[in-house]
Every structure is written in structure tokens, then in C-alpha cells.
Amino acid sequence: MPRGTLLVVGHDTTNLTHGYGGPPDPTVLYTPDQIVSxxxxxxxxxxxxxxxxxxxxxxxxxxxxxxxRAHHPQPPRRE
Length: 79
Fold this sequence. Notes:
Blueprint: E1 5-11, H1 15-18, H2 32-36, E2 43-56, E3 59-71
Antiparallel strand pairs: 1-3, 2-3
């Protein structure tokens, strides 16, 4: 079974109304819960909205990102 960590970071759907930058099309945005719903079989380490400061000509404004980190569970040890 492959091992590794999956990390997904991208603009959250709430970025449209509460954040800065990113695509204006809500069909290409997602929430942590939407991402997790597609990760059957993985262990979810973190799934949350995070604010990320963005420097602009008007000062620092936060973008809202969806962040999910997951990994494969360890296979049972054979003895």
C-alpha cells in the first residue's frame, strides 16, 4: 500500500465574502468538509479553514483557505 501525506490548500468558498483574492467562480472553490468527503480510506490529520495574510496595496488582508492534511493508515504488522 502506498504511503505518504496528502496536503490540499486552496481558497475556501467563504473567501468570496470574507477573504481576499482567488477565483471569483464559486464552482472552483471548496470547503474542508467537501475535500474530506472524497478521501475514503485516509486518516484525516487536519481539516480546517485558515486565514492567510496577503500583502496588497491597501495593506495586509486575509485570504480564507481550506486546508486538509491526510495520510494512509499504517498497515497491520505481520509477525
